[in-house]
Specification:
The complex is a heterodimer of chains A (about 140) and B (about 270). Chain A is of the alpha+beta class and about 140 residues long. Chain A contains 4 helices and 4 strands. Chain B has about 270 residues and is α+β, with helices and mostly antiparallel strands. In chain B, strand 7 and strand 8 form a beta hairpin. Classes of the chains: A alpha+beta (about 140), B alpha+beta (about 270).
């Protein structure tokens, strides 16, 4: 799953960060896997009761990168929530399009939950979501 | 196999009578428009069958709202256009009342609750991505990826124009599997609004494990939900109460919606 060819096209800073994370995943991300009650430092939204899922956001097709690729997201959150989060981070306009892909194949519905996608398509304890500004995989 | 093909057709031909009524607060004409009755296929999506409904009601709302997107409501639930009609009925209508009374709106689109659907292209895209997701579960997305654009169009046009043979000419390829193992995983979504705040749950389950055919009961067991806590229940799809011993592979091949997912609703008997 992590052999995403896109990584090579990224500027150095991001690649370095990426390598680091691939070699040794910081322990806090391990602790935050869904089955556990979670003591991880929360990112987008803090809620101590909801388990977190590690979501890796990969830009594809020339989409702008974000300084941080790995996020702890409440398992009950939806793709729509991640979409508005990315829009804010990248300061996209309402009229700008944004697409998500899982498995380099399909675009999940905006009301799909992170938990469901992780349960079906997660690997190595994380869910990889590709995002782009134009349609990438039809 | 012959009789099983009959089942595919029976499912395809499932219809629901619907009575559409314009929301009273949106009527701008002196006399409220008549309700609009329609028989709609259970397997399709509302935006594909409601052009006539829109034309019937739009003339009775104020001109500023003529270009607004229409949306539908049942007992205060805005109806998600991207759920198949039969699923919405199984999910929300507990007393099996027919015709199904649906309220039509042109104002105050609840875009925090339902997705926007500006055109039928959006429905096509939604169907294609659901099919890809299902195929990713069943065959690692190999079949959808190898299919020609023409086959993708057959799936879409078959559903759009309600043509069973056209749809199944392409869909049968998506239902292929090895005889002994079946699909890799069964694409399904389980709707249990009574027990979870999530709209539906989805996880991996194989049709065959250790040479044993898994059944609907096995699927429920892995949901980690206490189904019995709310009393006796049924598993419903296409309005059918499914026996818990139904093999998952069979039900996936025969009772999946056109998006290739089994949309299973849990229904508790009314007390």
């Amino acid at each position: 799953m992590d052999n995403n060819p896109v990584n090579e096209a990224l500027p150095d800073a991001a690649s370095v960060e990426d390598n680091e994370q691939n070699v040794e995943m910081p322990s806090h991300t391990d602790e935050s896997l869904p089955a556990l009650p979670n003591s991880a430092p929360a990112t987008p939204k803090a809620d101590n009761k909801t388990p977190k899922i590690t979501v890796v956001l990969c830009p594809v097709g020339g989409a702008p990168i974000m300084r941080q690729r790995k996020w702890e997201v409440d398992s009950t959150q939806t793709i729509g929530f991640i979409a508005s989060f990315i829009r804010k981070k990248l300061t996209l306009q309402k009229s700008d399009s944004l697409f998500f892909y899982v498995n380099q194949s399909f675009a999940p519905s905006l009301d799909q939950t992170v938990q469901n996608l992780f349960d079906c398509f997660g690997s190595d304890g994380k869910l990889i979501l590709a995002y782009c500004r134009t349609q990438a995989w039809g | 196999m012959a009789e099983d093909r009959e089942i595919l057709r029976e499912i395809w031909e499932g219809r629901l009578p619907v009575c559409f009524t314009l929301a009273t607060e949106e009527v701008s004409t002196p006399i409220a428009p008549d309700p609009f009755y329609l028989m709609v296929p259970r397997l399709t999506y509302f935006p594909l069958v409601t052009d006539k409904v829109r034309r019937h009601f739009v003339r009775c709302v104020v001109p500023e709202k003529h270009d607004n997107e229409m949306w539908l409501e049942f007992e205060r639930h805005p109806l998600k256009w991207h759920y198949p009609i039969g699923l919405l009925y199984d999910l929300f209508v507990s007393n099996s009342e027919l015709p199904w009374q649906i309220t039509v709106h042109f104002d105050k689109y609840p875009d925090n609750k339902i997705l926007k659907c500006p055109s039928k292209d959006v429905v096509e895209s939604h169907l294609m991505h659901s099919l890809k997701e299902a195929d990713a579960l069943k065959h690692k997305n190999h079949i959808m990826a190898l299919m020609q654009e023409r086959d993708h169009k057959q799936l879409w046009l078959g559903l759009l124009h309600d043509r069973f043979d056209q749809f199944w000419s392409a869909n049968r390829k998506l239902m292929e599997h090895s005889a002994e193992d079946g699909f890799r995983y069964i694409p399904f979504r389980l709707y249990v609004p009574q027990l979870t705040s999530k709209p539906f749950v989805q996880y991996l389950i194989k049709p065959v494990e250790n040479e044993k055919k898994l059944v609907v009961e096995d699927l429920l067991q892995r949901a980690n939900l206490n189904f019995e806590s709310k009393g006796p229940f049924q598993v419903v799809i296409h309005g059918i109460d499914i026996p818990l011993e139904t093999p998952l592979q069979w039900i996936s091949e025969h009772l999946s919606y056109p998006d290739n997912f089994l949309h299973l609703c849990i229904r508790y008997s009314q007390t």
